[in-house]
Specification:
The protein is of the alpha+beta class. The chain is built from 21 helices and 53 strands. The strands form ten sheets. Strands 25, 27, 33, 34, 35, 36, 38, 39, 40, 42, 43 and 46 form a twelve-stranded mixed beta sheet that branches. Strands 28, 29, 30, 31, 32, 37, 41, 44 and 45 form a nine-stranded antiparallel beta sheet that branches. Strands 14, 17, 19, 20, 23, 47 and 48 form a seven-stranded antiparallel beta sheet that branches. β12 and β13 form a beta hairpin. It is globular, with a radius of gyration of 32 Å. Its EC number is 3.2.1.-.
Length: 1225
Amino acid sequence: MPLKIASLLLKPRNLRFIVLTLIAGTLVVAIYHMYYGGMPDKPLPTNLVPADNLVGGIDNNDIDLAPPPLIGDSDYGNSNIGRQEEFHPARRNDLSGQDLRPSGSSRDTHQRHQLARGFNYGPTSTVSHQSGRSNSGRDKCFKIEAFLPDFDASKVYPNLEFDASWITTREYWNADFEKRYQSIVKRDKDSKKERARPSHNLPQVPPLKVIVIPHSHNDPGWLKTFEGYFYAQTKEILDNAVEKLTEFKHMKFLWSEISFLSKWWQHAHPTKRAMLQQLVKEGRVEIVTGGWVMTDEATVNLYSMIDQLVEGHQWVKAHLGVVPKSSWSVDPFGHGSVFPYILQASSIQGMVIQRIHYGWKKWFLDQQKGDFKWMQRWDTNGKYGIKCHNAPWDIYSIKHSCGPFPQICLNFDFRNISGEYSENYLVSSPITSTNVKQKAELMLEQYGRTASMFTHNVAMISMGDDFRFHRSIEWDQQYTNYMKLFDHINANKQMYNNAEVQFGTVSDYFKAVEERSYEYPSFSGDFFVYSDIFSEGRPAYWSGYFSTRPYWKKFYRETENVVRGAEILFTFANALVHQRGDEESIKVLNHEYETLTVARRWLALFAHHDATTGTSKQDTMNDYGFKLLEAMQYGTTAQLASIATILFGHSNNSRIQTDYELERFGELPRQLPLVFHGPNVIKKVVLYNSLGRKRMHLTKIVVMNPDVEVIGPDGQAIISQLNPVLELTEHNMIISGQVFEVVFFAELAPLSVSVFELRIAKPNGKSNAIRSLVYCKQCTSPSPIFEINSIQSGDIQLNNERLQLLFDRSSGFLLKVTKLKDKTSTNISMKFGGYASTDFRSGAYLLMPDTNTEQEIPFRYSANPVKVFIVSGPLYSELSVSHSPLLVSTRLMHTGGDMYEEAIFVQNQVDLGKHNGEIFIRFDTDIESTAKLNHPDFEGLDQPTLYTDQAGFTFEKRVKIPKIRYEGNTYPVNTMAYLQDETPNLRFTFMVDRSHGCTSMEVGRLECMIERRTLFDDSRGMGEGVTDNRPTVSNYVIFLEKLGGVIGSENTAYQKSLPTLSAHHLSQELSYPSFMYVYNDDKYEPLSGTSTSPSQPDVISILNQELPCDVNLINLRTLTDASLDFDLNLPSTNALLIAHRFGYLCTSGDCGGSSSSNNPNPLSLFYPNTTFNGVQVSSIVQTDLTGVSSTQSYNNFHSHKNLSHLHQILGEPFEIASVLVAFQQ
């Protein structure tokens, strides 16, 4: 019998079957290992999470009790918790008594005092400033390799045709392109006649297929305000769309701006709403991108770029029941690499872009690579690539879309409105039986030329323009005439080589391309700076808007901080009141949520590519400003109500106030002094830290008594500094004898509300605020409170234990920085200056300074000398200089730890008044920041190089291109830019508080535009200059790093161009400063409200642990209750939690140099046993970035949908993870 079996098995047919079975099994195992990181070293526990500890509301059939190690549960079972205790015996008692319910649960209590101090600074220590890096399993830290694409922007861009002769023609089409197109036509004709093989010299091209996409580009503010456009045009466009599309069964339509769609929905009759829902269901209206606006990609920060998309997607899912699958971004002025990642992480599968450099347009036509897969540099595994279509011609109008010849394309714009003139009227005529053949062939020639730019021979043709289709008759004209042309072509396929033309959507286009088995080439990088040639036949660089209207840009970022802070606090407070069953507070918070929703939407509106850019008319910009101010006010009241809920147990916020007033948009806030009515009065100062790690907050309070002391949350006095308050006149500085500034360093726990006290003290008390030493020129004081010292001759010096700063005696600006530890000095010369604008070439959009007109500020021959003022105390020293139009302060900390004491804090105020010009801040250093340019004309030559962020998320290396002027080498900077000398490993980082345009035109130089005032329009549609400048305060951080401590073996070549963790942390604190409020009640009583109640704790943390030091909480956002009417804007008890792991350069000092074995799973975004304090969680569900789709639909990397702990949320460097957190009611 065994011999018989063996003989059967050895038959060839059976052997083949056995071999194939073994191969298939091997592949299955390999795929499992690829996705799940391999099998564990020891068997997985069979019941890792006890059944009674599972997340409430999750079916046992829906959650894997022993998921693979990548999810992290095998590292966090009960047995591992025991091992964790062995490493940290000091915490054994805490863990042994802990309720091991799902993440978010704590001991079952609603007492406010039990929320206090429920916080640990990471698993290893309760006092460490920073926790250890979350990268156990790795020797030091994450290695970040760079993806190697088929073509890279950094290599292609320097070789583009910047100054070719064809530019003057304003057209990309040339004889070579025409020859290629004619060859395709000829081959098709020959193939049809002879049925012969295709030419050996040409690749076989499939038949022409054309997707014509009707659309209407609706700017939510530009020449008119948002409401002005809606009532004048957009409402009619959408009304017509649902009616005409219902009538015209073959027509389709795109819509992108959800801000307008939501407003239309409010006004629309239920019948029209239902018609729209049906059209969306049929795929005849495609919601593209689904953002609240078509966001700008140069001047918008990561938070707002995501948040406007969340707001739009949540609305679309609730009202239309769909998740957008395609993106349409045809009007932003250049494209960055961050938004493609955000789109892909939000379930978007394909995207369309339009405005990129004319050189890129030509290159894509040459290479036939206009359809590509956009990859992230850091995404080595290619998980986040997204299909991208570059619309090959200049802009999205009919004239510039059908093909290479705009005057021919005008034939196919059939809009003809009585009393209206347009250039298409001269050539366009209705389609009739007598002209249909001639017009169809003319159109097919243009479509064919467009398709010939792609190897798949599919053409996407946009049919629309700004605010098109707002007249009902235009729908009839366009549809009727196009259908006659389409019907003629499709009915005569043999005549037209099987060409096919139809109305369609973006998704239809990508589907058609996929059907032709097109292989997308991969691309990494970005498309800044955008430049056009279609207006004048010469390059025009759109880099002015990076810096235009800085007051608006700064106010936008401040509003973003307020709204983000309100989102996080509100979510926590809302969960608290629902679990307490506090109906009265629930009603108050419901109202606050309604106004918080308004704040979200006004903030999202300003992400629009004509808002944050500063490229709208003055009236529109003012309207945006009023909306931002309202958003800030609503966000502030939401914070106050939430703080009152957390501190007092009720949502009445009347007892807590801000310490400043801002009467109207366009002004600078004025800090109000605290008034003590009596010697025993205690003023409460409430500080809120919205970041997920501990921070030091420099708190400044204006008082009217110089003898005060500051008491910390632990009841102990803390060191404070008393500074003078200055009044500036034209010729003098007067030190006030009535008001003073008290300053103290507040140590704030992560995601916490902390309460400090200010008290009137006895004169010369041991805990009193220490009076600063004052040095000045041209200053007087009516009071003896501060002794005035004269400034010695020669250059000025400030120093602490780590840095020594040298300042120019004449200007008061920085000259040199010496790092005292390693005794190295670096020249860092800070200057301010200005250029004249080139008339009509430099405006809201464009930048073209006349660099030959440079003037330094302050002017060396000015009649009024520079005013210099220095204060020095135990906390910091600060040098301030005043000279119109500048007021500049440079601060050096004396305490706070390495990161703060090695940073240089700069604040400047610019008020141009009616002076025109392009105003810059410049740093000339001796840092040899250079690189080789990838261009044959400059082979072997070093060029000035800088590194710039993209939306505070990724970073690009920018090498100067000598062929381009100043404006073409200016790049957007949102959070930081740096120069780097690789030989001594020295880096100079300049961190900013809003969008700037920065450049490096000389080795070691970094120059950024900080203010612009231009009289003339730059002919890009706005129709006016930029003359509404306002006094603007800017905050910067200068950070000089000696990277000698870099862990060389751990950092890849790509990683060495990334910021350090310290730079990330400083930048985060600059972007998201803590909030200060005052408990303004002169009668002291315990914060609990009654003297018999337990004393209210002075520190309340949202989480019981900080986040790992390389993780940032982007948002914790309450979701609108969709079980009721979504438009009631009532809050649910569900929240969208979004967290991000930084990509960074590893150094030996990361996270205070603590051990890297603190987090058992290096990918976890939270430490083990991290929970919400005082509130319980019923479920944690993985989702896409915007919270509308399961992660399984867009990414298989995280394969489990339901989680049971926060530490199961995973992310590699740069990745952003989102989960839906449901709090128990």
